[in-house]
Write a structure and sequence with these properties.
Strand content: 35-45%
Number of strands: 11
Distance between the termini: 49 Å
CATH topology of the largest domain: Alpha-Beta Plaits
Largest sheet: 9 strands, mixed
CATH architecture of the largest domain: 2-Layer Sandwich
CATH class of the largest domain: Alpha Beta
Number of helices: 6
Oligomer: single chain
Structural class: alpha+beta
Number of domains: 2
């Protein structure tokens, strides 16, 4: 029985960046069980905890703003969840905030529209990053092929990229701030966008936010912090 829905924002550091999406789900289920919070479970022969992550984080990527919905069998104050669960987490996983949201809201996965990333590249291999990005964004389409498990998938990568801004935080690094589509029509991957740009492999990929269909803290943070300001 679902009595409450809590939305957790959490970060994933270096030590957890190679954990797969499925393993992260299992990790959270174990942590919540150890914390002794009243999670709601599915019915049937093999009940499982009712929780969901907003969007898979590409393996090898860190994050400061992952979203997870946890359904509770009893009402729990957000601060209580933080207090009980945090001691069960490794240093590389940090709960940033917890808020109660409506039980009737759309599934979290279905509500995601964009994912925001910072991608660091070696400056010596990205001398004309600004021009490269400008030409990419000006193109109506960018045909791309992605090979996975021996199969080649051909698609247009351009519609998956909403925005890219180039910044240079220090002489050795070029940083791409990307907003990539992440919905039912397709999901952009930062490593594939970098490859399509013809730029060198990233030194670091970090997710900075997820934007939902409605008003969201992630969208407001991007607006207030001016990540895409020229």
């Amino acid at each position: 029985m679902k009595a409450q829905r809590l939305r957790v924002t959490f970060g994933r550091g270096e030590a957890m960046k190679y954990i797969t999406h499925l393993d992260m789900m299992r990790f959270w289920e174990r942590a919540l069980r150890r914390a002794g919070v009243p999670i709601a479970y599915s019915e049937g022969f093999s009940p499982h905890a009712q929780l969901s992550l907003a969007a898979p984080l590409p393996v090898g990527t860190t994050s400061e703003a992952e979203l997870m919905d946890v359904f509770m069998a009893e009402h729990v104050a957000p601060r209580t969840l933080i207090r009980q669960v945090s001691p069960q987490l490794p240093p590389a996983i940090e709960i940033k905030s917890v808020e109660e949201v409506g039980l009737s809201l759309p599934a979290l996965q279905a509500d995601v529209r964009f994912a925001d990333y910072e991608v660091d590249l070696p400056a010596d291999g990205a001398v004309d990053a600004e021009g490269t990005v400008e030409r990419f964004l000006a193109a109506e389409s960018v045909p791309w092929e992605h090979k996975r498990d021996g199969e080649v998938r051909a698609y247009d990568i351009r519609p998956l990229v909403d925005a890219i801004v180039v910044v240079r935080p220090d002489p050795a690094v070029v940083r791409l701030r990307m907003r990539l589509r992440n919905d039912n029509s397709g999901s952009g991957r930062p490593d594939q966008v970098v490859a399509a740009l013809g730029l060198p492999a990233p030194l670091r990929v970090h997710r900075t936010g997820l934007s939902l269909a409605g008003a969201s803290p992630a969208r407001e943070a991007w607006r207030k912090r001016g990540r895409f300001a020229s």
